[in-house]
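Q: Can I see a sequence and its folded structure?
A: Here is a first one.
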Amino acid sequence: MKRLFLAFCLVALTPFTGHSQDKLQHDISYKVTHDFVVPAYENLAKQAEAQAAAWKKSCKADDLKDAYQKTADAWAAVQHITFGPVSLLIRKDRLYHWPERRNAVAKGMTKLLAKEDEALLAPKKFARTSVAVQGLPALERLIYGGLLDSEWSCKVGKTVAQNVATMTKNTAQDWKALQAVIQKGEGHPLYFETMSEVTIRLFTELLAGFQMINEQKIALPMSTSIKKANGRRAEGWRSNRPNRFVTESAHALRNMATPFMHFLPKKDHDELAQQFETFLNAANKLPTLTTAVKDVAGREQLKDFLAISKETRALIIKQFTQHLGIPVGFNNLDGD
């Protein structure tokens, strides 16, 4: 179904025709991957490796918090991306099982910590265990949830940290190789057939990032009323990261949009750049999410931010479809 939609999108590319359109899509695809995607994944791999090294030195929670925060920041930069190598071997869910369904991380960690079986931590076996215990949310529970209290929990943490480091390293390497394919303007048997398809997917991921902020990072803990609001639904509440996740994601969306904006007319480029400044300033000024969702004034501030976020997304759609000839595709947050 997605393939049919993408085929339709390619036919619908009207602002440019012939070789100029093909070249534009190639240039956009390469610049976005070169300037943003590959460096972001390489930084994630770097931070994850440093985190694994920190676990090898110490199993004291206070010694591990800085490395966790830096790795989580790096993850926030690519969290909205589902296209490409991160989709291979269920890497995305294994790296970051969130939003959490049915308390899966807590249940998985309780089960894993209760059964002191060294065989469970063998790299190949661990990579096939529940996705809920393989990534950053599991490390957050250990470090900030008071679970790091025994030699066994230390071994579990080291295994999870190394698992994250291995996956992020492989993902970054795979993206580097994929970038070389994109540079040559060739298709790929797993991910895409044409450069136009790459551009559509990258554009779609950018837009999905705004939806992720709006629908999951903000609206999920807000719910539909103060009575139903729950600050503990906010992403990273244990590690005091809800606001930090929003601001890091917001900056990542600006950084991902920037190489697209390189191809816009100056007037439109400047207009969107200014809108992004408004968006980032609003993100930086958000009240503390975990308490604001239960406060009348705080909820109004959150609603104001959501309005700005939607305005920014709408302007991106308007400019990129009009000037770059990229149609809006489906993403994983659009539902059926």
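Q: Show me another, different protein.
A: A second, unrelated one:
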Amino acid sequence: MLSQRTLVKVPQILAIFWVVKVVTTALGESISDYAVYQYNPVVAVLVGAAAFCVALAGQFAARRYVAWVYWLAVAMVAVFGTMAADVLHVKFKVPYVVSTVAFSVVLACVFAVWHATERTLSIHTINTRRRELFYWATVLATFALGTAAGDMTAKTMKLGYAGSAALFFVLICVPLVAWRVFHLNAIVAFWFAYVVTRPLGASVADWLGKPAKAGGIGLGDGVTSAIFLGILLALVGYLGVTKVDVRRDPADVPSP
């Protein structure tokens, strides 16, 4: 049943969570661009969709949080979410401003339905199948929104990749300061930062991978993908060995 209770299947939110999250977004951007431009884009999107479904199925099948399973799902969401947002512009000529607004509406709707159904948007309460479905729908929407927003600032607003990276770095600090200093609601702060990680990581990846004439430093999407893949494997390997981000569900701790 969708409401049947399970163990919490998301990591504890530590500083390393945000580092890994940004790395997955950068990896998703670079892999998506490499695959779409080096191979048939239709085939690339279909392969990305298949990999996304397989990775997400593995996450749903897991009985508890497992670092490599969870972050593989996030990485595949990053790849497929990037492709979904890019297809709207490249294939259907939808302006970045329009797609940014559209994905913002989609995200707001997911949040509204989630909260109306579960009365909470907290990541710490992802302990039923239905909440897990809402969570991953939200994650996918944030990736699509972040992709469109990053492209909008870099290309439509002419900030370039480095300028966009700087902008989103400042923006991601806003919820941290607001939470610590002004006592912003922790759930609002979390999701604000979560959305911003996507354009931040993507802007860094584009700056590294794209040629100088496009505003990058010219490493290439393939090399950039390899760099971020190596970083991701190292970080997830560390998490898998140390289990520093595995938290016990309070409801599963025996009473004294």
